[in-house]
Amino acid sequence: MMTDMADITAIPILLSPDIAETVSFARALGFEVETHDNYAILRGYGIELHYTHTTQPEACHETSCYIRGGGIVALHGVLSARLREGPIKGQNVRLSAILSRPWGMSEFYLHDPHGNLLKFGTSTDELPAGLSFPEG
C-alpha cells in the first residue's frame, strides 16, 4: 500500500563549534531560534536549519547545504539589507552576489561564521520575465 509522502521534508544539520555565536548570527539575519543544550534550530523565510555542536571546527569548512526555491531573489535582498545594517560582531559572514550558473540555476552563497556554506538557488527558467544575473 502506497502512502502519501508529500509532507516529507529534509532538514540539514550543520556543525557549529560555538552554538551561542551561531544563534547570534541567525538572529541578526532575522531567523527565529530555538536551542536545546548544544543544538540550535533556526526557522525563518520558509527555511529550517539545524546546528549541532562540534569539537572539530575545521569540519565546518567541509560542509554545505542547498536550499532551493522561488523566493531566493527576495531572500538575497533581505539578507543583504540585514548585513548592511551592521556587521555581525566578530563574525566572518560572507554573502555572494546572485549569479547564473551553467547548470541552469541562479544562485547565491552564504558562509556562516564557522565556514559552513549555505547555497541558495532557483531555476533560471523560473525567474520573472526580464530578470537575469551575470554568469559565474
UniProtKB/TrEMBL annotation:
Domain of life: Bacteria
InterPro entries, sorted: Glyas_Bleomycin-R_OHBP_Dase
Protein name as it appears in the record: VOC family protein
Organism: Rhodalgimonas zhirmunskyi
Upper taxonomic lineage: Bacteria, Pseudomonadati, Pseudomonadota, Alphaproteobacteria, Rhodobacterales
